[in-house]
Amino acid sequence: MTEIRALFADYLKLHAAKKMDEWRDKMFLPEALCVRAAADGQVSIFPIAELARTIADEAKALDEQHEIFEDVRIEVYGHAAHYAATWTLFHNNKAIRKGRAFFSLVKKDGAWKIASLVWYRE
Questions:
Q1: Rounded to an integer, what distance in angstroms lies between the CA atom of residue 111 and that of residue 7?
Q2: What are the residue ranges spanned by the domains of the chain?
Q3: Which of 73, 93, 100, 119 has a CA 20 to 30 Å removed from the CA of 82?
Q4: What's the rounded Cα separation, in Å, for the pair 77 and 121?
């Protein structure tokens, strides 16, 4: 669990630093799939490269962005794990979105990577 907590500490640091290419490459498998479910029932599916590009484009106009994770739950079974958290996204120190995220992880070549991300956005 220590390695997984460290992975997500890096996830949040890279996101805040707007290093979205490094965030994508260090945190995720290249084929990772990301799915957003919105409060209105709309579901959107993105490859990780598209999500990283979208976040980077949005961040260009900001002085600051960061995300916090709370109510974290981690389950580990051998080389598979699940990480769930309530998240809040901040732009220029103002909370703009929140929801719950569910990450599926695999340990590949000795390192934990995110295989999929499904998140709910209020």
A1: 9
A2: 2-121
A3: 93
A4: 28
Tokens read off for 3: 């390695």
* Domain spanning 2-121, CATH class: alpha beta
Identify the residue whose tokens are 């409060």.
39
Task: Give per-residue pLDDT as tens, 56-103.
Answer: 898 888 899 999 999 999 999 999 999 999 999 999 999 999 999 999
For residue 51, give every residue at least 6 positions away whose Cβ sits within 8 Å of its Cβ, in sequence order, or none. 24, 34, 117
Whole-number Å distance between alpha carbons of 67 and 69 = 7
Instruction: Tell me the two tokens of residue 90.
Output: 């901040």
What residues pair up with 80 in beta bridges, in sequence order? 77, 106
Please identify which residue in the block is written with the tokens 């960061």.
66
**Length of the chain in terms of residues written:** 122
79 by DSSP, 3-state: which?
A: coil
Q: Give the predicted TM-score (pTM) of the model.
A: 0.92
